[in-house]
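Researcher: Quick test of sequence recovery. Tokens follow.
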């Protein structure tokens, strides 16, 4: 089976030149990597190599288009347990050579109608409804394999989609494989524009293939018994008046006899040179919409079918799911000149999920609601005819517990990004972030951050160095150093080399979070476009 799959991958690669002759665009991405000892005392993620081949084919002819993505992976010197016939849980579904069709689609696009079959991303509303998408920062790539219909005629827009959930089956960071959950999803959204206001809504039904509750040993699981219904209204008026835009969205969840409701909204005021954004959320008993992953597939816990807006910074580490929380923020941007913008943000949220805090004397810690305060500010500027630019920001996010008034969480952060043009074709870039983090119960405090320095030459060659640091006692090292080279010999080819180490830890993108292990080794990626 392994040989057959590898031969199939080779046949596809050899067919690429012929495909080009038929007006098909081909992108070939080859990746090689070696994982050295990352110091985390886990013997099952060190001392192995991998090779990965990804082939993307797209074709368009008139109103028709099609796409195909093939993924192949092979491992070398992969770790094994004491008994190769009975691998430990840490090696379950890891380091498996594989070749598969990861994405396939075909569609027809007309003046007011689009029809798609195969894999497609789906997003209803702004994340409260069905949201199957790609999030590179946390290794998530989820699509719906089935059919999608889009109608946009006059004042009416509508989308209908149905199929089963298709995930990216390989987690690059761990080498672990997971099968598609085969959860069924069907839904749609519609909007009718009346003057400057669009009114509509969305509704989705999801049937989970495997039970969401733990099945007792020896009992056969019942497939597709867990069925959830999501629905909500939407009001979209980006230009309600000349200076005001409004967006409102609601959500309801029907979950096997349980219900949850929530709402999200924004108001944008444009009064040049000032822009004011007011953004708020009120989420009740909302549940995370995702399959139940086995403990051996914890790397896939970031796969979720909805993504409620957090109303916080995109990369903010979020500890709790978006449920039993309400509040909002106000951000003001002021353009002081064509090349200078300053902004300030202040957010306040009530989190009823709760935080552990000190109880009475000699009493154990208790869990109580908390109030999140999230102020930050920044400045952005450009010079040298926009060839050079800089952005600096910082803030202090804290959580204050009820009753005791203790600061149970603290996150002091600063960000920096500077590009200085030396000539018209040469520039140097400095990018960094620093965090001072603390929490109570348990009483912990640590700092972490990253700094990258790079030299860019004529848009063809970039050379850089990186430094990650942390004082987290759970991390194996305090300092991680790395180097990168990015070379583009032609407009259709690129070569990227990374060597060194990166710290692990919690990484979040728009409220979707996962833990990454530290990395030490080297990776090489070569991309060709035909």
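Model:
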């Amino acid at each position: 089976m392994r040989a057959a799959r590898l031969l199939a991958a080779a046949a596809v690669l050899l067919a690429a030149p012929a495909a080009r002759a038929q007006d098909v665009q081909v992108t070939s991405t080859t990746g090689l990597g070696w994982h050295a000892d990352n110091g985390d005392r886990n013997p099952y993620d060190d001392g192995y190599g991998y090779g990965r081949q990804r082939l993307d084919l797209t074709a368009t002819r008139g109103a028709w288009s099609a796409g195909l993505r093939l993924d192949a992976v092979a491992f070398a010197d992969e770790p094994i347990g004491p008994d190769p016939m009975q691998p430990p849980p840490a090696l379950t579904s890891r380091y498996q050579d594989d070749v598969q069709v990861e994405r396939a689609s075909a569609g027809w696009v007309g003046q007011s109608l689009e029809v798609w079959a195969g894999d497609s991303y789906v997003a209803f509303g702004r994340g409260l409804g069905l949201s199957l998408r790609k999030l590179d920062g946390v290794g998530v790539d989820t699509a719906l394999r089935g059919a999608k219909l889009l109608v946009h005629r006059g004042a009416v827009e509508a989308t209908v989609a149905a199929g089963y959930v298709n995930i990216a089956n390989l987690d690059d960071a761990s080498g672990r494989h997971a099968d598609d959950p085969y959860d069924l999803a069907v839904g749609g959204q519609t909007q009718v524009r009346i003057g400057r206001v669009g009114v509509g809504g969305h509704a989705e039904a999801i049937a989970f293939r495997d039970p969401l509750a733990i099945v007792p040993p020896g009992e056969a699981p019942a497939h597709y018994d867990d069925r959830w219904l999501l629905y909500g209204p939407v009001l979209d008026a980006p230009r309600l008046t000349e200076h005001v835009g409004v967006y409102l969205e609601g959500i309801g969840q029907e979950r096997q006899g349980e219900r949850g409701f929530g709402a999200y909204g924004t108001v944008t005021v444009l009064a040049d040179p000032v822009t004011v954004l007011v953004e708020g959320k009120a989420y009740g008993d909302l549940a995370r919409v995702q399959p139940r992953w086995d403990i051996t597939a914890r790397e896939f816990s970031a796969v979720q079918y909805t993504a409620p807006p957090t109303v916080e910074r995109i990369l903010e580490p979020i500890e709790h799911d978006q449920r039993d929380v309400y509040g909002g923020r106000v951000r003001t941007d002021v353009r002081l000149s064509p090349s200078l913008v300053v902004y300030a943000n202040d957010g306040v949220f009530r989190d009823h999920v709760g935080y552990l805090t000190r109880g009475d004397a000699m009493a154990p810690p208790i869990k109580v609601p908390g109030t999140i305060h999230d102020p930050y500010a920044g400045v952005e500027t450009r010079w040298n005819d926009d060839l050079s630019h800089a952005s600096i920001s910082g803030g202090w996010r804290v959580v204050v517990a009820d009753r005791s008034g203790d600061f149970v969480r603290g996150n002091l952060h600063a960000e920096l990004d500077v590009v200085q043009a030396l000539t018209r074709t040469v520039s140097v870039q400095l990018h960094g972030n620093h965090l001072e983090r603390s929490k109570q119960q348990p009483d912990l405090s640590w700092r972490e951050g990253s700094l990258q320095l790079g030299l860019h030459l004529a848009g063809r060659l970039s050379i850089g160095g990186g430094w990650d640091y942390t004082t987290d006692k759970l991390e194996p090292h305090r300092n991680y150093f790395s180097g990168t080279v990015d070379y583009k010999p032609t407009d259709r080819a690129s070569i990227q080399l990374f060597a060194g180490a990166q710290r692990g830890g919690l990484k979040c993108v728009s409220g979707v979070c996962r833990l990454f292990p530290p990395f030490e080794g080297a990776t090489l990626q070569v991309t060709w476009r035909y």
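Helices lie at 2-21.
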